[in-house]
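User: Predict the complex with zinc ion.
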Amino acid sequence: MRAVIMHAPGDVRVEEIPDASVIEPTDAVIRPAAVCVCGSDLWPYRGIEALHGPTAMGHEYVGVVEQVGAEVRDIAVGDWVVGSFVASDNTCEICQAGYQSRCVHQVMMGSVGTQSELVRIPLADGTLVKTPGVPEADLIPSLLAASDVLGTGWFAAVAAEAGPGRTVAVVGDGAVGLLGILAARELGAERIIAMSRHADRQALAREFGATDIVEERGDAGVARVKELTGGLGAHSTIEAVGTDEAMQQAIGLTRPGGHVGFVGVSHDVQIDGLGLFFSSVHLHGGPAPVRRFLPDLIDRIWRREIDPGRVFDLTLPLEEAAEAYAAMDERRATKVLLTP
Ligand SMILES: [Zn+2]
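Assistant: Here is the predicted structure with zinc ion placed in the model:
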């Protein structure tokens, strides 16, 4: 099968590798209808995260089940499925509490690789959620978004306790930040402040429900949000970047007693204990338990209540994966969908 392999920073190739197959009896193999490139795939692409030899890339996927292992009960060949970027049994105590991304048997799909013509899905019964039927083609990008960026933005909004009467600030205007805006709107937030400097992303932010745009960053961004909130700061803040600057900004612009939902993968974030102590904010985050939200998100997409697939602004064949990475790296695209 053809698969996207990263050899070194900036060096992405599409190569022939052995077909994905059932290894464990709880595995399934799917043929993805679409996969995509994630902002987190850019960390190794930019050399910020180390690669350990040539690496199969990707962790987002939707598609049709082609094979199932002997112990798979709930998923069958021919099912149309969406899964999270973390495979989980969905039965252990951690899963049952709603934290499937930290399942005691978790498998990060990034360690398997999904940007390929076939994908092995571990723990298929726990990981995969069936759609009500074969989706119409225009729903596929939204279902694919549910696999990670929508589910992650949704978790961030829930962790930040976005809801009626709340002012929500969103740090980061990548796909996750933009979909955090959509989630905050769906959860009933009164006011949503998007922090973005890019005109095209500001436009999509407004379409998803942002009521205010703040272009300043760092201390100036904090000051601007406080100015917009009567000097108090936001009730709920979504941090969707993962840098130290973004995290400091998120904590700084949240009012005492407020909540920060942080879902940007942390890179060199240093939190000062005394500053955190006096901030009096709640911090909750981590790899999003997307599996918790998938049934609800699939329903909302199926009923055409939300259109998170709007974050894909470029579609390319899998063979052109190198261009997909370059386009996202150079910010010519927010998120690229790949068709295997
Ligand atoms: Zn589990």
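The mean pLDDT is 97.
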